[in-house]
Amino acid sequence: MRFFKRKKISQPSGKSGSVKNKSSDEEGSWFSKNRARLIILLVFVILVTLFFPSLEFKQYLNFRPGTIAYRDVIAPFTFYIYKSKQELNRDREEARRRVLPIFQVDPSVAEKELDRLNRFFDELRLLRKSGVSDTIRIIEILSFCRRENIILTEKDAHFFNKLELAVNQKSFSSFENEMQQILQDIYAIGVINRSKSEIRKINPRIYIKDKDQHFEKDLNYIYDMKDARERILERFKARYRTASDSIHAAYALTSSLLKPNVIYDAKETNRLIHEAIAGVPLVKGQVLKGEIILQKHQRITPEQIDALRSLEKAQADKNAESIYWELFSFYVGTLFFILIALFPLLSFIYVYRPKIFNNNNHLIIILGSMLLVVALAFFVQHYGITRYVVPVAVVPMMITYYFDNRVSLLSGVSLSILVAGIFANDFTLLVISIFVSAVGVVAVGVLRGRKRLTNSVFLIGSAYFFSLLFLGIAQQIPIPEMARDWIGGLLNGVISAVLVYGLLLLFDYIFNVCSEYKLIELSDLSHPLLKMLAVRAPGTYNHSIVISNLVEAAGEAIRANSLLAKVGAYYHDIGKMYMPEYFIENQRFGKNPHESLAPRLSSLILQNHVKKGLEFANQYHLPAAIKDFIAQHHGTSLMKFFYEKALTLSKGVPVNEADFRYQGVKPRTRETGILMLADNIEALTRSVHDINVSKIRNAIHSVVEEKLQEGQLDECPLTMRELQIISKAFEQNLIGVHHARIEYPGQEKMISGKKAAKSPQKAKKSPEKKVQELEDKGI
């Protein structure tokens, strides 16, 4: 409840110059006070400006393939149609593939290898004439092979030694000629120094330069090393059939003399590829001055879109001399457009939600999440993805978790304007984005339960589907053409839910703020602070549990954040863990320690539990929203018992009332206001004997009236109507807490430790009479 007091404004004396100085001082102090927030806003505006489409792309951005042209577009001058990036890459790849790999024939390879073969057989003849033993001849054969880099096994050397001894000179020469012929045939066809599979990836044909002859050749009619070895083995098998020793030795010798004689010329091939790519034209057509590019009411084709993009580029090139002025005017205009889009949101939170505006972390959360969506919209526009996949609803949904529905709705409006601006002020996109933002707020702000984020997937997807359907019907867009946007809208629901959940976890961790998921974590009674409270101050712990039920019921009744109120109630008295025995709920049927203390000292102990509670909260990193419950649940209330005791003991000496007031902050939210009322009402009803409905109702009324009179709720936005609803919720809850039980016969003696009466008829009152009395009392 707020009480507004009108302040008298005194007219300044002196000349008007003093008035100007005063106003300038106030203005300067405002800017210095809000310097950090202005910097945050400036950075946001600059970054968003960079995400807006450039001048060349903006004029015809609303035209899309498959849609109906809403106006004629006529070429103002002759210009060329440039190929798209995809078309240019495709044509360049085609040009590259048309270039055949270049190979050079090296005739020296065949000559050198055939010469080595001849020298091998000459060595065998010399060894035969030398008359040395077989062992020496084999050693010499292997030695020769090592010198000539010929790979033969000892078994192969034995074969050639026996061959030279076993056959006559004519047969020996025939064997030699056979091997020479095979090598000559292989080298005549050619052996390339690359694998065929590698070359086929480039082209199935190659270009061969052999002295003065240049010709193309299919890869099927030339050998690589693998093919050549296989061909040599086939020839020897066909010649010697079952003579495995002959085949193995001949193959080993010949394959050792096999080398590529057609060499790949990478430098020349790359030069030709670069020339071919450079020769690909950048344009694919020409539009003459006065030619119709688009005709109103006709379907737009991809070719017409290419013509429009080329026209934009040509217009930018023609106006190159005035480009700096255009850039300046573009960016200035974009800056003001962004500020206009943000004005509804910023003005509202500045005037009506100053707590959000004055908190830098809150501004970063709002503007940072909006910047993320703007960046996503930029990439969606840049890569030509359907614009309805941009998750505009993420920001209002997330803000609903942190703040309230009004702020989230306005953030959705501002963000929708920015996103529509990125897509060249698409009015249809603007309308649908605002609608979907409102649906997102309803999904997480109005619906209750932990599954509301999951439900938002269905609601947002449905909102996109039906809005696109009805607007498409109104614009006479064929159903198949809407399918792409439908898919984007349905995916949007999933993307929005995932992003909201991720951002909530991120912001909770970075800024130590309090989302629903953070509150659920803190509501776990196994939290270290609550476990410590249960051990050190069990009475306070039980009191906090009772209070949490009261504030949760009241919060739900007025649609406040009941979860926040409940969790705040859990932690509001954690400061009583320090010196718990000085608080009445923790005293165990013994002497009250305050009886031996001066009233002023007792008041200091009670005041200290707020300070200690904030220290515990800082130690365990509780969010600021929970700390507010600790700091504000007593406000500046008067500790009446100790104040009156001080007055009694003072014997006429003045007592400072401020010494007996809590030094906290008055409740500033509905949730903390509810907690203050619940805390006092629960304590009052607990101290009343023979409680009944009438006493509960009177206790609630007296506490609410007292807090209003003291002004403890002056800074709290609770209305009189809400206070009535809260009182009713307290009443219903407390009746359940203080429900009566039937007094059983002999109950008093059982409690006092005495032996119970033998006969129930000897009890003072029958159960029926007791029930009747309770009903008469209204319980």
CATH fold assignment of the largest domain = Hypothetical protein af1432
Task: For the record, give the distance between the C-alpha atoms at the N and C termini, rounded to a whole number.
Answer: 32 Å
- Please list the strands of the largest sheet in the order they lie side by side: 6-5-3-8
Number of strands: 10
Helix content: 55-70%
Task: Count up the domains.
Answer: 4
Q: Pick out the low-confidence regions.
A: 1-20, 756-768, 774-779
Structure class:
mainly alpha
Helical segment tally?
33
Share of residues in strands: under 5%
Q: What's the average pLDDT?
A: 84
Instruction: Output the CATH class name of the largest domain.
Output: Mainly Alpha
Largest sheet, in brief, is:
4 strands, mixed
Shape: elongated
Q: How would you describe this structure to a colleague?
A:
The structure is a single chain. With 779 residues, this protein is mainly alpha-helical. The protein folds into four domains: 36-53 and 325-513, no CATH class; 107-202 and 224-259, no CATH class; 527-739, Hypothetical protein af1432 (Orthogonal Bundle), CATH 1.10.3210; 747-779, no CATH class. 65% of the residues lie in helices and 5% in strands. It has 33 helices and ten strands. The strands form four sheets. Strands 6-5-3-8 form a four-stranded mixed sheet. It has a two-stranded antiparallel sheet with strand order 1-10. Strand 5 and strand 6 (213-218) form a beta hairpin. Helix 30 (693-710) packs antiparallel against helix 31 (720-737). The longest helix is centred in the middle third of the chain and has 33 residues, at 479-511. The protein is elongated, with a radius of gyration of 46 Å. Residues 1-20, 756-768 and 774-779 have low confidence and may be disordered.
